[in-house]
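pinning this so it doesn't scroll away 📌
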Amino acid sequence: MNFPMRPFLLNLLLLTLALLFSVAVGAVFIPPGTVARMLATTLPGLSGYRDWPETFNTIVFQLRLPHTVLIALTGAALAGSGAAYQGLFRNPLADPYLIGVASGAGLGAVLAMSANWPDNLLGYFTIPVTAFLGAILTVAIVYALARSGNALPTTTLILAGVAVGSFASALTSFFMLRSEGEVRRALAWLLGGSTMTGWDPVYAALPYLMLGIGVLLTSGHSLNVLQFGDEQALQLGLPVERIKTIVVLAASLTTATAVAFSGVIGFIGLIVPHLVRLLWGPDYRHLIPLSILGGATALLIADLL
């Protein structure tokens, strides 16, 4: 395929600038040029002359850079999943939370908070782990309810997702009411935003995000064919049901991981694919990778503001 290099390079430039300013801005402002030189020293053969205070190393490499990387990965995951879902369901209003991932993650997180598990179960990672398990369990239930024999009707999948997601949201509200002391914390998590520090969350999330995003990046051609309808796609030789299953699983894994570590962040997975489609067309071979870059940039800018 002829990949549109100009949009790709433009998005890459914007992402680079967003990364630099995300690391630069904080209680202690570090000039973006200094940040760029600090990051360059991590490359082989570019150790160079270090003319910045030693405290900058701690601020950049231990505090701000891990947070920035996690935010960028979250935005990329949500936008890429949103673009894939819009192609799968042939619906521009589809977003990563359409089949209940956010509701399931919220239920898992609130359940852990209401039971005071963070103090005696997995410590730092209790909330992300329970949120991830809640999201994956919700998707599994939706998938089981929607599947009919060897077929996975998209309409049934959406209806099952709405039903199970609504039930999970109701349970979330119930547990929040039962545990008044954790209501503020639960609401803060449900509103989204990463408060985790250090590289451990990045290392924990990265394998799942890379696996899911990698699969989505290879699904562009299949999603293009699906736009003609299931019957036409079958006649063109596309294994429709297998493609649906792969895309649903990959997008759900990616979204569940993003939500587990950053909470429920809205609109990125809906708006970014729309903007990319308006600017550079509906070809999913281009739309998904450009949405991934755009999602990372958009969420970094939102985090700065």
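📌 and the second one:
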Amino acid sequence: MRTGLGWIAVALGISLFGPTEPVFGRTREASIVESAATVLDEIMAIRLREIPESLLAGAEGVAIVPDVVKISFVAGLRRGRGVLLVKDEAGAWTPPQFVTLTGGSVGYQAGVQATDVILVFKSRRSIQGVMDGTLTLGADAAVAAGPLGRNAAAATDADLKAEIYTYARSRGLFAGISLDGSALRVDHTANALYYRGAEASFGGSSSNEPVPLPASAVRLMERLARYSGSSQPVNPAPADAFRQPAVVPRPEELIRHELADQSLELYAILDEGWKAYLALPAEVFEGNHGPSFAALSQSLSRFDTVAADRRYQLLTRRQEFQATHRLLREYVLAQNPKVGARLELPAPPSDSPPDRR
């Protein structure tokens, strides 16, 4: 591969021969991959309104983010989890890597709560931008609404000068949106869970045999190859193409992204009043800089208050609350300016007897 984008496959010894799934059933990550395949199938099945095959054929990568949802207590903010697939030097699609899409909802149609988003990347530069940490749409790469239909050579952006073309669908219909300012990031935690799950179901890594890719990943790669008219077989890239590791975020950033995802599961079971009370700072979900320690401490105090009150056991016994509470506590600890600070102590003892007064 041209820029070392498929490091996970080799790091875990993954192969496409003999696809497998984790033995303990479908994981959240596998569900995302399967949903991505469904979204792609449904959009490509819309006669005369599908993504042009020629656009996919010339693409360097495709990101599919099902169910980008509005976070109601954070004005104008949406967040979704999906996958990014890129081409290797031979033009074959490589295994999906997990991504998050976070950003404002300027341009979203009124009343739209969930939107499926597909991003078609035309340049390697924009793909590498994602791999390097965070790609901000519109700022780091030019974005435009993508053309529709097999014969839509350039229905929008006539000269196809944009680096990324966007497609969004809500309730089966294409939605007019603007993704400018939205951030696309690699989800390293989800990558590890998904591909290590495949390794575990194959009996661990003690064998020198390559670990098969999860079946859901193979199905998605095959679908994208078919829709892009690729003649290349679905196959992993050569081992020497994966030697450059991806940029791994700082530990507190990993906690922040996991907290953002987990909190959405909690908010899905709460009414508006509880969402507002247990709301996390907006910076947890967006931007390159996390929230202040004071704002985090205030949120943690509210979670602690609820956890200590027996009246709310129906909530506090739920896994969604407990996991969010735990991650918030870990994130506060990681952000605590006092952690690792130099201790202010008196002078060390001298050779004389210690003062016991």
